[in-house]
Amino acid sequence: MSNFPPLVFSGVQPTGNLHLGNYLGAIRKFVALQENNDCIYCVVDLHSLTAQLVHEDLPGQIRSIAAAFIASGIDPKAHIVFNQSAVPQHAELAWIFNCVARIGWMNRMTQFKDKAGKDRENASLGLLAYPSLMAADILVYRATHVPVGDDQKQHLELTRDIAMKFNLDYQAHIRNGGKGIDITVGEEPVHAYFPMVEPMIDGPAPRVMSLRDGTKKMSKSDPSDLSRINLVDDAETISRKIRKAKTDPDGLPSDVEGLAGRPEADNLVGIYAALADRTKADVLTEFGGQQFSVFKPALVDLAVSVLAPITGEMSRLLADTSHIDAILRDGGERARARAETTMREVRDIIGFLQ
Ligand code: TYM
After folding, report:
1. Most buried pick, 17, 117, 237, 261, via CB within 10 A?
2. Mean pLDDT over all residues of the chain?
3. 228: Cβ below 6 Å to ligand 1?
4. Left if phi > 0, otherwise alpha if psi is -120 to 50, otherwise beta: which for 182?
């Protein structure tokens, strides 16, 4: 265990519409964590260039993620909501981490392999270095807990590797400056400047799957819009997508074991459970033995009752951009001050004159 003061950090990319996977896998957890923690939530606009270099409306996409955070219940006064490019210390620390991390570590990332596809030589250097910037996002605040969906697990393991290598490489400098905190890694005592982050992946929906194929992740980049429920979808669209969602011919089983080998049924029950804050077992006690023709309308009603107020509040917030812009400006200022405190120490540890 680490003795670092607990701090929650997470980020979401402003690329395309947010979907139910982002909401259940990440944003809903952000909201729950703010009750008992100091939290920083970031719209990672620098990262979004690795997916799309030129956006038609980047400002609009950044505002829309910030609006989704706030409409979902994040309190930007008690916590910090900002966009990454407003805090240049992220990019500064990412450069240092590019020199700490090894190319082999980056090459092993499954997201890099998926996104680069067959033509790796032609992928941007930014896409390869993506996890290094992600580590910087978290560690520039020395954050300890990171709520994310299951697809980010490998990136967070890499964040720990980068933190550990920095701590060990600069061990003597960290000790001399008296800036570290004693932790134990395995049996080893280490005077650490950066914490070993704890991923927070568990939850009712760590991996929401496509509505068209229960073996594929629900994703912004799926060409079929029917594969996902977007936070901006209206009730009619949500209803149509759930009615058309792929299922198998059997009815619902009465226990969780009965979902094995039935990815689409498992996914819909998981979505229902997450939206209702119930367990899958509990949902199956209610719907076991019923046909999808009964379950799907109940899921539509539930999804609309949870999402419609968020969608409504998002469009209200986005109607007057000055409010969202003021929130991001204020969050950016507070984030910058905290990030600069870390970077002053990091520059000192490394030996840069300042
Ligand atoms: P991004 O923008 O792709 O996704 C935002 C969050 O949504 C989660 N998520 C899902 N959860 C469950 N089921 C799904 N189908 C699903 N799809 C997406 C993601 O796991 C994520 O938590 N690299 C990050 C952004 C990032 C970040 C960070 C996160 C940059 N720096 C620092 C944490 C800490 C990403 O691309 O998320």
Report:
1. 17
2. 96
3. no
4. beta
d(CA 27, CA 70): 10
Name the H helices within 250-320: 263-276, 280-287, 292-319
- Residue closest via CA to ligand 1's atom 33 equals 10
Counting from 1 in the atom list of ligand 1, the atom nearest the Cα of 208 is 13
As for how many domains the chain has, the answer is 2
Quick one: pLDDT band at residue 2, thresholds 50, 70, 90? low
Q: Is the pLDDT of residue 344 over 60?
A: yes
Most informative mutation of 12, 29, 219 for ligand 1 (most atoms within 8 A of CB) = 12
Read off the CATH number of the domain in which 143 is found.
3.40.50.620
Query: Do 243 and 273 share a domain, yes or no?
Result: yes
Q: Which atom of ligand 1 is nearest to the CA of 22?
A: 7
Question: What is the domain range of residue 177?
Answer: 8-204+321-350
Instruction: List phi, psi (to 5°) of 199.
Output: -70, 140
Return d(Cα 173, Cα 336) in angstroms, integer. 25
> Strand pairing of 181-185 and 188-192?
antiparallel
Answer yes or no: do 130 and 234 share one domain. no
| Catalytic annotation, residues | 115, 217, 220
Q: What token pair was written down for 60?
A: 């609009």
Same domain, 264 and 344: no
Task: Write the pLDDT tens digit of every residue in 253-279.
Answer: 999 999 999 999 999 999 999 999 999
Amino acid identity for residue 230 in this structure: N
In order, the DSSP letters of 12-77 are E--SS--BHHHIIIIIHHHHHHTTTS-EEEEE-HHHHTTT-SS-S-HHHHHHHHHHHHHHHT--TT
Task: Write the pLDDT tens digit of every residue in 318-340.
Answer: 999 999 999 999 999 999 999 99
CATH number of the domain that residue 288 is part of: 1.10.240.10
Helix (H, G, I), strand (E, B) or coil at 278: coil
pTM of the model: 0.96
